[in-house]
Write a structure and sequence with these properties.
Strand content of chain A: 35-45%
Oligomer: heterodimer
Strand content of chain B: 35-45%
Number of helices of chain B: 10
Largest sheet of chain A: 6 strands, antiparallel
Order of helices and strands of chain A: HEEEHHHEEEHEHHEEEHEHEEEEHEE
Helix content of chain B: 10-25%
Radius of gyration of chain B: 23 Å
Shape of chain B: globular
Largest interface: A-B, 90 and 87 residues
Structural class of chain B: alpha+beta
Structural class of chain A: alpha+beta
Number of strands of chain B: 23
Number of domains of chain A: 2
Strand order of the largest sheet of chain A: 3-2-1-4-5-6
Distance between the termini of chain B: 56 Å
Largest sheet of chain B: 8 strands, mixed
Chain lengths: 451, 483
């Protein structure tokens, strides 16, 4: 029987309480997270992998005379917790001191977000198979092959420290992705939500299939700068490489695009970007692994850079407020926005296409990597449905293209926004972002591939 | 632990599995980071659990739990069966496996100095010494040193009678040293990027890598890179250093030869492959200087892509991938080997932990050494670039169109090294690129690199792989492509 979210939160809180009790006399923070994660994977129009994981991870961070050590375990019995705490204390004693180590957070108010859905939590392998079956039948109806997955996850999280801070959260997550494959084409669609009931598997399977059918016999176009209409997932794919740079630690260490640039107008006036875990489409907990509550954080307003994300240690050093995306210190990675929201507008993607005299429609991208991190230049490929637009209509499918672009340049070249959606290859290689489709000029495609 | 894996398999069989295997993995790790003279993180983690994989009614199922108790294992085995039956509800070809003998064995990777017995004091002091040596180089603004240690103990049982225990210690050590000046950040990594060199070894890796001698040399290069000219653009000859060639092999050979990718099961994420089945033994992958093997045995090298048995209980093997430029072999599993009529699995299935399903992964996929000295490669170039250490890598979803950039380059003019360049990059189409290979350095230059972060699968898994390479020359390549 599936544990309710309340039971799970209570159990994790009990684990935290015990670990703190065993660490009596030292400053300590404990985080306990339980996950129940299932993923049904299909390819060649059948289910070929079907997995489930149940795990609890406990992270104990001990601070002693300005020295810190962190130890994680997945054993929850009393003896194991005692051993883990003892070992964390012994490890802390022999660390290098961090002169300005901040105190553990205390006296903070934590918001609650309701993101738990019983139907999603209780989703069984048979139900995931049924949804998979619907998607596969649609692909077959169109004479296509299909691949993808149906995923459901429940997690429950508790944070407590010896200074009295206590927070908990539980959440469900559902995710569906499908690639439809034709003789020399492919199409893709994805949908994610905290509720499986909000995912329209049939609609998404039809979208992916239509792209694959429309994409048959792609033509080659020459490299060059094009106006592009990027669907939300394509925007998400690029935005990941922007939001990681809003890292306060990297800016403080002077190895970031945003070093010494707070308050500068770097992007178009139509760019509004926030870190907002409370957005109704978003997923995630209202506090960070370091126990700092999350607040909505303006990152860019009217093209002006407003804030960066700060972990608790870097915040103290930089004279800033910690923003709740960090891990308990010390942590070498710092913090970056984990729930970005880019403001869109009330235009459908069809309207963006209709407004384009000549351009390229991109479904999503693949294998984006930085060329130069401090300049936010990136490269990558289009994938699974790329089309030439002519006189406001899709004219024909094109072969996938490689691009080399500057993200700041792109954000100065946006002409129109569409409607926001939750996007990102979440949990696989991306953080969840809420982004609109958009139309931008001068997108630099440098070469094409065979398909 | 043997009793638990055997119990898991027995439970699964009783519940209706036609095949079952179980893996218990006990993992302990330490991650330490020092940056600019300060300890940035010290994290230790331990995790244990069991993953049970079954075929029931022709479908695959997998379930895992951290709880190593009889009741929990029984429940998890039943969950695996339930999942398998759900899989088989969508009609398709039933899962079948090529034959494999059962094996009873214990395998231990080499390790001279147990890193978990080295004191924390010593580790941090050694890292501080490296950091100090780097920051003595005038102009350096960032020095980062990372040490990573992993101990893995794995127990495997199958319904065919295999019972295997494997123990390995993995050590990784690396530095990044950078200069931020004039709005630009240039850096060098030693001994390689991706957090350093990884090996099936213990703390003895520190002496082997000799950071105190070598890291400052790279640090000085980072300082010089700021003032160096940008790599020119054009069609030129290219020499790739051993470390960059290792990555070239990884992306444009290692991934496309994964047979699951070829057969379409990774289409939704990692992609497919241009190496369709009719190309086996029938396709010119590159020039006749191109010889590639996948060899998981310790004899090839004690790097992190080596093991005793894969996660299907198949012993480590060597497979010829490319011989004199002709494509001759895939990386296969018991199921994919059966699908294409091979008589045995190539033994390449591995999972990143107890909570993940095994997938076909690269092992030690290496380009074999040639017969040239490095200066011979240089002397025969009128106009070219020598590039070292990867900085950026991207390739399309069938592994054809690629673009890579490196940390540092040197111009070659009329047979001589002619000056440092920054931001070097190159692009190509896989078989055309490999077709332009015309010389490979000999075994004296060959190094085996351990890469700990190859990503694949849904849910995602990061896997240890290795690649051996010596510097090699390619003719008429598009260079300087990222301007």
């Amino acid at each position: 029987m599936v544990e309710s979210n309340q039971e799970s939160e209570v159990r994790n809180q009990e684990i935290c309480e015990k670990a703190l009790k065993f660490s009596k006399g030292v400053d300590a923070a404990v985080r306990a997270k339980t996950i129940n994660h299932s993923l049904t994977r299909f390819a060649n129009n059948m289910i070929h992998q079907n997995v489930q994981e149940i795990n609890t991870e406990i992270t104990i961070s001990v601070q002693l005379d300005n020295k810190v050590a962190k130890l994680s375990t997945n054993k929850t019995d009393d003896d194991s917790l005692k051993t883990a705490v003892k070992e964390a204390i012994e490890l802390a004693k022999v660390q290098m001191p961090i002169v300005d180590l901040p105190d553990l957070p205390s006296g903070l108010i934590y918001n609650k977000i309701s993101r738990f859905d019983t139907e999603t939590a209780e989703c069984e392998p048979n139900q995931r198979a049924v949804e998979t079956g619907k998607a596969v039948e649609i692909a077959k109806k169109h004479g296509l092959n299909s691949a993808g997955f149906v995923e459901t996850m429940t997690y429950s999280l508790a944070y407590m420290n010896s200074c009295g801070a206590s927070a908990s959260h539980s959440e469900t997550f559902a995710n569906f992705s499908m690639t439809a494959i034709g003789p020399n084409s492919s199409g893709w669609a994805q949908s994610a939500s905290s509720r499986i009931g909000r995912i329209d598997f049939v609609q998404k399977a039809e979208i992916a299939s239509k792209k694959a059918v429309d994409g048959i016999n792609p033509q080659e176009i020459p490299p060059g700068k094009y106006t592009v209409v990027l669907e939300p997932h394509a925007v998400s794919d690029i935005l990941q490489y922007l939001i990681w740079a809003f890292n306060g630690l990297e800016a403080y260490e002077k190895r970031s695009y945003f070093t010494d640039k707070i308050g500068s107008k770097l992007f178009g006036e139509n760019i509004q970007l926030y870190d907002n875990v409370y957005n109704q489409l978003q997923i995630g907990a209202p506090f960070g692994d370091d126990g700092i509550p999350r607040e909505t954080l303006p990152l860019v307003e009217k093209g002006v850079v407003k804030n960066l994300a700060y972990d608790i240690l870097t915040a103290k050093r930089a004279g800033k407020k910690p923003t709740g995306q960090g891990m308990t210190p010390p942590h070498s990675l710092g913090a970056f926005p984990s729930n970005a929201v880019m403001q869109g507008a009330n235009n459908s993607t069809e309207q963006l296409i209709h407004s384009t005299e000549s351009g390229v429609l991109v479904t999503h991208f693949w294998y984006i990597r930085y060329i130069d991190y401090t300049k936010l230049t990136i490269t990558g490929m289009t994938r699974d449905g790329t089309f030439l637009i002519n006189n406001g209509k899709i004219k024909y499918p094109i072969r996938n293209m490689r691009f080399n672009i500057s993200i700041p340049e792109l954000l100065n070249n946006i002409e129109l926004f569409g409607i926001e959606a939750l996007a990102g290859n979440i949990g696989i290689e991306a953080v969840p972002v809420v982004v609109p489709a958009l139309k931008a000029r001068n997108f630099n495609f440098v070469s094409s591939t065979s398909h | 632990m043997y009793d638990f894996v055997k119990l898991a398999v027995d439970c699964a069989k009783t519940a209706g599995a036609s095949y079952a295997d179980a893996r218990i993995v006990l993992l302990k790790s330490q991650d330490i980071s020092v940056r600019n003279g300060e300890l940035k993180s010290f994290e230790q983690a331990e995790t244990e659990g069991i993953g049970i994989r079954v075929i029931a009614d022709g479908g695959w199922g997998f379930a895992s739990t951290r709880e190593l108790t009889k009741d929990s294992i029984l429940e998890t085995a039943h969950q695996a069966i339930k999942t398998a039956r759900a899989s088989s509800s969508i009609k398709g070809a039933p899962a079948q496996l090529v034959a494999e003998n059962f094996h009873t064995a214990e395998w231990n990777a080499p390790c001279k100095i147990d890193p978990f017995k080295v004191s924390t004091d010593k580790k941090i002091n050694d890292m501080i010494k490296i950091d100090s040596a780097v920051r003595e180089v005038k102009g350096i603004t960032l020095s980062s040193v990372v040490f990573n240690f992993v101990r893995e103990e794995k127990y495997f049982a199958s319904s065919e009678g295999s019972l295997i225990k494997q123990c390995r210690t993995k050590t990784g050590m690396g530095t990044e040293m950078g200069v931020f000046a004039d709005g630009e950040y240039q850096y060098r990594s030693y001994p390689i990027c991706f957090g350093g060199q990884y090996s099936l070894a213990g703390y003895e890796l520190l002496d082997q890598l000799d950071f105190i001698k070598n890291a400052p040399i790279c640090a000085q290069q980072a300082v010089e890179l700021i003032k160096a000219p940008v790599c020119p653009s054009g069609e030129m000859d290219l020499i790739l250093d051993s470390d960059q060639l290792a990555l070239q092999v990884h992306e444009s050979v290692g991934h496309p030869i994964e047979l699951d990718r070829v057969l379409g099961t990774e289409a939704n994420f990692a992609g497919m492959s241009f190496l369709t089945l009719e190309k086996l033994n029938n396709f010119k992958y590159g020039s006749d200087k191109m010889n590639i093997v996948a060899d998981a045995r310790i004899e090839h090298g004690a790097s992190i892509g080596a093991f005793g048995f894969d996660d299907e209980g198949v012993p480590a093997q060597r497979t010829d991938i490319v011989k004199n430029g002709v494509f001759t072999g895939y990386l296969s599993s018991r199921e994919t080997a059966k699908q294409i009529g091979l008589t045995r699995s190539g033994g390449t299935m591995r999972a990143s932990g107890w909570n993940r399903l095994p997938l076909i992964r690269m092992t030690q996929v290496s380009i074999l050494p040639g017969d040239k000295k490095f200066n011979e490669l240089v002397q025969d170039i009128k106009d070219g670039v020598f590039m070292s250490t990867n900085k950026s890598w991207s390739i399309d979803d069938k592994r054809l169109n690629f673009q890579f950039a490196c940390e540092i380059g040197w111009l070659i003019k009329n047979g001589k090294i002619a000056g440092m360049v920054k931001n070097p990059s190159y692009a190509g189409i896989t078989p055309v690129f490999w077709g332009s290979l015309d010389a490979v350095c000999d075994a004296n230059y060959w190094k085996l690199w351990g890469i700990p972060n190859c990503g694949k699968g849904q849910p995602m898994q990061l896997m240890d792989v290795s690649h051996g390479a010596a510097p090699a020359r390619f003719r008429k390549i598009k260079i300087g492509v990222t301007k």
